[in-house]
Design brief:
The complex is a heterodimer of chains A (about 325) and B (about 240). Chain A is α/β, with parallel strands linked by helices. Chain A has a single domain, classed as P-loop containing nucleotide triphosphate hydrolases (Rossmann fold), CATH 3.40.50. Chain A has helices at about 10-15, 40-55, 110-115, 150-155, 175-185, 190-205, 220-230, 250-265, 275-285, 300-305, 310-320, and strands at about 70-80, 85-95, 100-105, 125-130, 135, 135-140, 145, 160, 235-240, 270-275, 285-290, 295-300. A six-stranded mixed sheet of chain A has the order 8-9-10-3-11-12, with helices on both faces. Chain A has a four-stranded antiparallel sheet with strand order 2-1-4-5, with helices on one face. In chain A, strands 6-7 form a two-stranded antiparallel ribbon. In chain A, strand 9 (about 235-240), helix 8 (about 250-265) and strand 10 (about 270-275) form a beta-alpha-beta unit. In chain A, helix 5 packs across helix 6 and helix 7 packs parallel to helix 8 (about 250-265). The relative contact order of chain A is 0.15. Chain B is flat. Chain B has one domain (about 1-215): Orthogonal Bundle (MetI-like fold), CATH 1.10.3720. Classes of the chains: A alpha/beta (about 325), B mainly alpha (about 240). The interface of A and B includes residues 149, 163, 169 and 230 of A. The structure holds adenosine-5'-triphosphate and magnesium ion. Adenosine-5'-triphosphate binds near residues 81, 106, 108, 110 and 111 of chain A.
Chain lengths: ~325, ~240
């Protein structure tokens, strides 16, 4: 259960998996195997994260999630809407603490992937691993059965999401938006929650807005609050779905800079959907290019954006640049 | 006219009965509306069935027939009610059915994104409803609730048919004893209107509070409501 198991639980994690699927991860390590040496870039990444963690990074860093983040692994994931098969046996892995950007044409299923991880959509087939546990299934009597609400509640503790449209609660002021989750869900005392919220508001540069109402804030400010609200729950996996695409152009950079700093100072496992290549380069170690529910190409941002090897990726990047 | 006005103790007693029936019936209707309205948004089919059965049954029956049941029929089956509680039950059950539809519709009208944000913050189903969906749905419920409350108030007139001396009954009595038909029925007209206006005032106040909670300052009100209340479109200043 504790997500911190993930780093050491290599053997256990593998044992949980049907044997047929273990060799199925040639490109990247399974979440459970983090740091076993199968992918050097991941080890480096962990190294970086740990290193940064040890630097006494001032007061700000204190609120950011630290410690071991779980990896994520999709195994033959199927998702359909009616007869529309959006994900067809999708396989991919995100290492613990890795930061991955998903790109791809509209309708390729990027949002669907994040929503499956946030349990906002139901899984139709395959397995989704967070750390060494399956999100949509639980063990019962040696068998894997569909998860109940209790299991989903446990699993969701590790995951946070920031939405394109912010989705702040209009029936609460800014501070209340940030404290409601920690108080009601995490069981923090009011004072602890307020202290945490103020720390986060300071980090996102909105100290003076704690009593403001969401409707009184600009889009950029609302998104900062939404980011703070997600972080207040201290997730270990953070999902960002086109978080700046609803913002006025002049507000985009500020929010992107904030997220970049958060990404670098924390060791969150990050999944980010964005069309902004600069931001993708800033924030991620790896880019996955999707089309029609499959990965077309993957690699470091510089490679994908600089010299993509697939025609479909080149076409997509052309189209994004043109827009 | 002076004969009619001289009977003001009777008028007051009648008005008090009408107001009490309105408030008690309204309270019962509100509780039932919230319970069955929320049931109507449940994930579980059998809970939604409860909502449908309640709504269809009590919305589909005349309030007067319900009243006859509570007043005449059920006592024969061993269930006795005081006149007042029989009336409150009949009115509350009937109006609560309409209210349940209002509650269900309002909760469903809260943007899906709000629900998704509560899932992302790992709220329990109860917390989702209690902390986010219901407070926001409340803003949508209030105008139709105002209408229903006034409908309920007017609907209380049927209790005069089972012997409760409400405002309507008092007007009939005084018309009979004084012979001043126009005067008696004019007074009762004005009294109902005043009660409706006071109720409307409370609803407006609640609407304003909820608007402030939601960070809105919109004075806009559905015009139907104003028409039904017979009130001029008073602007609400934020
Ligand atoms: N709730 C839904 N009901 C039916 N179809 C859906 C639903 N959500 C998504 N889809 C379909 O699933 C496919 C993938 O959608 P998704 O939102 O994941 O794409 P995306 O890659 O995020 O696209 P975009 O870049 O436009 O955001 C689309 O064909 C879409 O029409
Ligand atoms: Mg999308």
């Amino acid at each position: 259960m504790p997500p911190s198991d993930t780093d050491e639980a290599g053997p256990g994690g593998v044992g949980d998996r049907p044997p047929s699927e273990i060799p199925g991860a040639p490109k990247a390590p399974a979440p459970g195997d983090g740091g076993s040496g199968s992918a050097p870039n991941v080890v480096t990444e962990k190294g970086v994260a740990t290193q940064k963690g040890e630097v006494p990074g001032g007061e700000q860093a204190a609120e950011l999630p630290r410690g071991t983040a779980p990896g994520i692994r999709f195994e033959k994931v199927v998702k359909r809407f009616g007869s529309n098969v959006v994900l067809r046996e999708l396989d991919f892995t995100v290492a613990p603490g890795e930061r991955v950007t998903l790109i791809g044409p509209s309708g390729s299923g990027k949002t669907t992937i994040l929503r499956l991880l946030m349990t906002l959509e139901k899984l139709d087939g395959g397995l989704i691993w967070i750390g060494d546990e399956t999100l949509w299934h639980r063990e019962r009597g040696g068998k894997r059965v569909p998860a109940d609400q209790k299991h989903l509640h446990e699993m969701r503790k590790q995951v946070g999401m920031v939405f394109q449209q912010f989705n702040l609660f209009p029936n609460m002021n800014v501070l209340h938006n940030l404290t409601e989750g920690p108080v009601r869900v995490l069981g923090l005392s009011k004072d602890e929650a307020v202290e945490r919220a103020r720390g986060l508001l300071d980090m996102v540069g909105l100290t003076d807005k704690e009593n403001a109402h969401p409707t009184q804030l600009s889009g950029g400010q609302q998104q900062r609050v939404a980011i703070a609200r997600a972080l207040a729950m201290q997730p270990k996996v953070l999902l960002l779905d086109e978080v700046t695409s609803a913002l006025d152009p002049e507000l985009v950079v500020g929010v992107q800079d904030l997220l970049r700093d958060i990404a670098r100072q924390s060791d969150l496992t990050l999944l980010c959907v964005t069309h902004e290549m600069g931001f993708a380069k800033d924030i991620s170690n790896r880019v996955l290019m999707f089309d029609q529910g499959q990965i077309v190409e993957e690699g470091p941002p510089d490679q994908i954006f600089g010299e993509p090897s697939e025609q479909r990726t080149r076409d997509f990047l052309q189209a994004v640049l043109a827009s | 006219m002076s004969d009619v006005l001289d009977s003001y103790p009777q008028w007051l007693d009648g008005a008090w009965v009408t107001v009490r029936l309105t408030l008690l019936g309204g309270a019962l209707a509100l509780v039932l509306a919230l319970l069955f309205g929320m049931a109507g948004t449940s994930r579980h089919a059998w809970v939604r069935v409860l909502n449908r059965v309640y709504v269809e049954f009590f919305r589909g029956n005349a309030t007067l027939v319900l009243l006859y049941w509570f007043f005449y029929a059920l006592p024969l089956l061993g269930l006795r009610f005081t006149t007042l509680s029989a009336a409150v039950l009949a009115l509350g059950l009937n109006v609560g059915a309409y209210g349940a539809e209002v509650v269900r519709g309002s909760i469903n009208a809260v943007p899906k994104a709000q629900y998704e944000a509560t899932v992302a913050l790992n709220f329990t189903p109860f917390q989702r409803m209690r902390r986010v969906l219901l407070p926001q749905a409340f803003a949508l419920m209030l105008p139709p609730f105002g209408n229903l409350l006034i409908e309920l108030m007017k609907g209380t007139a049927i209790v005069s048919l089972v012997g409760l001396v409400d405002l309507t009954r008092v007007s009939k009595n005084i018309q009979g004893s004084t012979g001043q038909t126009v005067a008696a029925f004019s007074v009762v007209l004005v009294l109902y209107f005043i009660i409706a206006q006071v109720l409307q005032l409370f609803v407006r106040y609640a609407e304003r509070r909820v608007d402030r909670m939601l960070g809105r300052r919109l004075p806009s009100e559905p015009s139907l409501e104003t028409v039904a209340a017979g009130a001029p479109g008073t602007g609400v200043t934020g």
